[in-house]
Every structure is written in structure tokens, then in C-alpha cells.
């Protein structure tokens, strides 16, 4: 409802209205003790702030979303929250926190070849590729991006996310001298 409306409003460049809608949705989620709605709300708020370059402001919000997810919501239903957290950590140069997110993915999805949910797999490999880029292991990142782009992304991923993966993949290919 309001969370997605807020995201759509933000995309239409109505920033103040977007945050008003997020405020309403957050208040309702907290009053109803609806943790899934709350984590989604905090995720969208942090994602918008991250997009605006307000990484430090987004940090406590995404940390709260992570806390809600880790304590009350099944991991596979909220992998996108972990990916947004990792993006914020990346922007802030928090390599150890990025590594922790990757370790959570590896713990929760010990056998990716047996996972059937494409979105979960895309987020799994996105986490591994992001951390590989930060750890300056571009060849490893290339391998993960190729899994996303050539095996998974064409089946399930939204075009915008697919384009983002392609651009980071190209950057890694430049670093490894393959492009």
C-alpha cells in the first residue's frame, strides 16, 4: 500500500510527499506491530536516502530494518533488505559490515545450487559480487556477475537491476583487463 505508493511518488520526483507516505506507513506498522510491513518501510526509506547520497542518514534506518528482519522475519522473504544494507555499507566504506552480509547469505543459503527462488539467488550472488569488488577481487566478482547476468537475471530480474549488474560487471572486466 503506502510503502509502494511512497516509492512510486519518489520516482515521480515528489520527495516530500514520498516521505510523508513513508511516515504514515511506518506509524501504522508500528501501531499494528506488523514487522514485515515495518521492515519493508524502513528498507524503502533507507533505499531512497541511499539513492540521494545520504548514506550516513540511511545507516541507522537500514540497521533497524536488519534487526527487524533477523529477529522476526524469515530470511528468504527479505533478502532485498540485506542487499540494500550492503550497498549502504559499501558507500560508507564499511568492508567488515559488507562481509557480514555476505556471510549471512552464505549461512542461510549453504547450497545455492539447490535454491529454486531466482530472486533469492540473484541477491545471494549480488552479495558475493559486491563483497568481491570491495575486496578488490574483480575476477571473482566477474564470475558472480556472469551467473547473475547469463543464468539468473534473464529469467527473473527487473530490467533496472539487470542494467546495474551489467554496469558493475563491465567495471570489473575493465579492472581485470578483459574489456
Please explain how this structure is put together.
The radius of gyration is 16 Å and the shape is globular. The protein is mainly alpha-helical and 179 residues long. The longest helix is centred in the C-terminal third of the chain and has 19 residues, at 138-156. The protein has nine helices and no strands. It has helices at residues 2-11, 15-32, 35-51, 55-72, 79-91, 95-108, 118-134, 138-156, 159-176.
User: How helical, in percent, are the residues?
Assistant: over 70%
Integer-rounded radius of gyration: 16 Å
Runs in which pLDDT lies below 50 for 5 or more consecutive residues are none
Major sheet attributes: none
Query: Which descriptor suits the 3D outline?
Result: globular
Beta-strand residue fraction: under 5%
What are the defining features of this structure?
179 residues; mainly alpha
Summarize the structure.
With 179 residues, the protein is mainly alpha-helical. It has helices at residues 2-11, 15-32, 35-51, 55-72, 79-91, 95-108, 118-134, 138-156, 159-176.
Summarize the topology.
Blueprint: H1 2-11, H2 15-32, H3 35-51, H4 55-72, H5 79-91, H6 95-108, H7 118-134, H8 138-156, H9 159-176
Amino acid at each position: 500500500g503506502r510503502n509502494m505508493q511512497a516509492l512510486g511518488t519518489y520516482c515521480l520526483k515528489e520527495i516530500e510527499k514520498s516521505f510523508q507516505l513513508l511516515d504514515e506507513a511506518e506509524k501504522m506498522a508500528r501501531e499494528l506491530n506488523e514487522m514485515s510491513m515495518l521492515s519493508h518501510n524502513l528498507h524503502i526509506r533507507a533505499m531512497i536516502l541511499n539513492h540521494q547520497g545520504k548514506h550516513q542518514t540511511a545507516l541507522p534506518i537500514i540497521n533497524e530494518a536488519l534487526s527487524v528482519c533477523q529477529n522476526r522475519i524469515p530470511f528468504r522473504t527479505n533478502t532485498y533488505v540485506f542487499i540494500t544494507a550492503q550497498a549502504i555499507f559499501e558507500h560508507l566504506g564499511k568492508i567488515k559490515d559488507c562481509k557480514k552480509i555476505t556471510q549471512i547469505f552464505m549461512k542461510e543459503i549453504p547450497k545455492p545450487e539447490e535454491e529454486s527462488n531466482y530472486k533469492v539467488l540473484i541477491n545471494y550472488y549480488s552479495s558475493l559480487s559486491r563483497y568481491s569488488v570491495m575486496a578488490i577481487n574483480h575476477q571473482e566478482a566477474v564470475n558472480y556477475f556472469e551467473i547473475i547476468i547469463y543464468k539468473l537475471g534473464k529469467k527473473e530480474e527487473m530490467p533496472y537491476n539487470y542494467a546495474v549488474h551489467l554496469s558493475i560487471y563491465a567495471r570489473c572486466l575493465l579492472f581485470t583487463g578483459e574489456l
